[in-house]
From TrEMBL:
Methyltransferase required for the conversion of demethylmenaquinol (DMKH2) to menaquinol (MKH2) and the conversion of 2-polyprenyl-6-methoxy-1,4-benzoquinol (DDMQH2) to 2-polyprenyl-3-methyl-6-methoxy-1,4-benzoquinol (DMQH2). Its EC number is 2.1.1.163, 2.1.1.201. It is an enzyme of class 2 (transferase). It comes from the Bacteria. S-adenosyl-L-methionine binds at residues 66, 87, 113-114. Pfam families: Ubie_methyltran. This is Ubiquinone/menaquinone biosynthesis C-methyltransferase UbiE. GO terms for molecular function: 2-methoxy-6-polyprenyl-1,4-benzoquinol methyltransferase activity; demethylmenaquinone methyltransferase activity. It catalyses: a 2-methoxy-6-(all-trans-polyprenyl)benzene-1,4-diol + S-adenosyl-L-methionine = a 5-methoxy-2-methyl-3-(all-trans-polyprenyl)benzene-1,4-diol + S-adenosyl-L-homocysteine + H(+); a 2-demethylmenaquinol + S-adenosyl-L-methionine = a menaquinol + S-adenosyl-L-homocysteine + H(+). Belongs to the class I-like SAM-binding methyltransferase superfamily. MenG/UbiE family. One of its GO terms (biological process) is methylation. Keywords: Menaquinone biosynthesis, Methyltransferase, S-adenosyl-L-methionine, Transferase, Ubiquinone biosynthesis. It comes from Rhodocyclus tenuis (Rhodospirillum tenue).
Length: 240
């Protein structure tokens, strides 16, 4: 076709990601707890501790899904702050919004692609993306957009699966390729989506590569923190 191979492959990836999250949305929170043994809550708490977010801050939660981070940030920023829960996927976002409303939190919600954020330049004090960058087709573009909407002095936090400490890799591969798809099958009747999850982790840039990508997008003083021996890494960068 005149779109060329690359665009067909990219469209295919975007469609696959949409199918995965449409399929898992209703069981997403339960699966997170099961797969990580509840650890994802600690990883998110760690990210929030590095955010510098306080009363009155403006926060953008990119690929926010069912809203874990938005919920925690909304409590922090109080009535004078703003937290935007955003995601490309309507099923995930609907669950997120309902969950926040059930907890009495009326935070703005927007369905949008991280690669084309509908916000003005230099608007946010903090932008976060947790377990979302991995699914994006043009990661450089998404990082550049997140940098664009940050105010000078603002922070970008990227929480994502990363490269685990080498000696642990065989065990980790066994867990992610054999155990997780089984749990996925039992809980969501969807083994394929959880196999996709394991594969997407394997091809995601490692700690140093992601650090360079963030620097390439204009972020400064970029550093990362390995959590659980690199199963997850939190990258933090500033805009100046
Ligand atoms: N941040 C939440 C959390 O940590 O629980 C949800 C993470 S979930 C694994 C990944 C999310 O990324 C999905 O809700 C998916 O729809 C979203 N996503 C994937 N590609 C995206 C894009 N290009 N723009 C915005 N969101 C995207």
């Amino acid at each position: 076709t005149h779109f060329g191979y690359e665009n067909v492959a990219e469209a295919e990836k975007a469609r696959r990601v949409a199918d995965v999250f449409d399929s898992v949305a209703s069981r997403y929170d339960l699966m997170n707890d099961l797969m990580s043994g509840g650890m994802h809550r600690l990883w998110k708490t760690f990210a929030i501790a590095q955010s510098g977010v306080t009363t009155g801050s403006r926060v953008l939660d990119v690929a926010g899904g069912t809203g874990d981070l938005s919920l925690a940030f909304a409590k922090r920023v109080g009535p004078t702050g703003q937290v935007w829960l955003t995601d490309i996927n309507n099923s995930m976002l609907t669950h997120g919004r309902d969950r926040l409303v059930d907890k009495g939190i009326m935070t703005p919600v927007a369905q949008c692609d991280a690669e084309k954020l509908p916000f003005p330049d230099e608007y946010f004090d903090c932008v976060t993306v947790a377990f979302g960058l991995r699914n994006m087709t043009h990661k450089e573009l998404a990082l550049a957009e997140m940098q664009r909407v940050l105010r000078p002095g603002g922070r970008l936090l990227v929480l994502e699966f990363s490269q685990v400490w080498k000696p642990l890799a065989p065990l980790y591969d066994f867990y992610s390729f054999k155990i997780i798809p089984r749990i996925g099958q039992l809980v969501t009747q969807d083994e394929a989506s959880y196999r996709y999850l394991a594969e997407s982790i394997r091809v995601h840039p490692d700690q140093e590569t992601l650090k360079s990508m963030m620097e390439g997008a204009g972020l400064e003083r970029v550093e990362y923190f390995n959590l659980m021996l690199g199963v997850v890494a939190l990258h933090r960068g500033f805009k100046f």
